[in-house]
């Protein structure tokens, strides 16, 4: 019998207690028309944890420590990355929203726009992540 992977994010119920040594993360996507036919794929440390459609959210627990959270979509190259220094017992609220800046290049260059559409940190993609609280 192998030991459980303590670095893996686990789906959680928002009202349940946060497990010892873990932090709770809730990612919410508001309703809207931009990219409404595409889920925002959310990953923690490279592991997919949720596909979030407009008007929905996902809650999961992650081990305390430095975490990399990414938002991507199957329809647009690149991804948006944020670093989160997760404190044990803390709860974090993150909003994933369509990145309006990606729409213009896509309208002009089509699928090629996603290949070159990046900021100075190498972030691109159809979505952005905003830390709302934690």
Per-chain topology:
Elements: E1 10-11, E2 22-29, E3 40-44, E4 47-52, E5 56-63, E6 65-73, E7 76-86, E8 91-98, H1 103-109, H2 113-116, E9 127-133
Parallel strand pairs: 2-8
Antiparallel strand pairs: 1-5, 2-5, 3-4, 3-6, 6-7, 8-9
Task: Write a structural description.
This protein has a single domain, classed as Immunoglobulin-like (Sandwich), CATH 2.60.40. It has helices spanning 103-109, 113-116; strands at 10-11, 22-29, 40-44, 47-52, 56-63, 65-73, 76-86, 91-98, 127-133. By secondary structure, the protein is mainly beta. A 5-stranded mixed beta sheet has the order 1-5-2-8-9, with no helix packed on it. It is built from 2 helices and 9 strands, in the order ββββββββααβ. The longest helix has 7 residues, at 103-109.
Mean pLDDT: 80
Q: Any idea of the CATH class?
A: Mainly Beta
- Beta content comes to over 45%
Number of strands: 9
Q: With helices defined by DSSP (H or I, 4 residues minimum), what is the helix count?
A: 2
Count of discrete domains: 1
Would you give the CATH topology? Immunoglobulin-like
Q: Report how far the terminal alpha carbons are from each other.
A: 36 Å
Largest sheet entry: 5 strands, mixed
Second-tier CATH architecture: Sandwich
Radius of gyration: 16 Å
Uncertain spans: 1-6
Provide a concise account of the structure shown.
The chain is mostly beta strands and 134 residues long. Helices cover 8% and strands 48% of the residues.
What keywords describe this structure?
Immunoglobulin-like, five-stranded mixed β-sheet, four-stranded antiparallel β-sheet, 2 helices
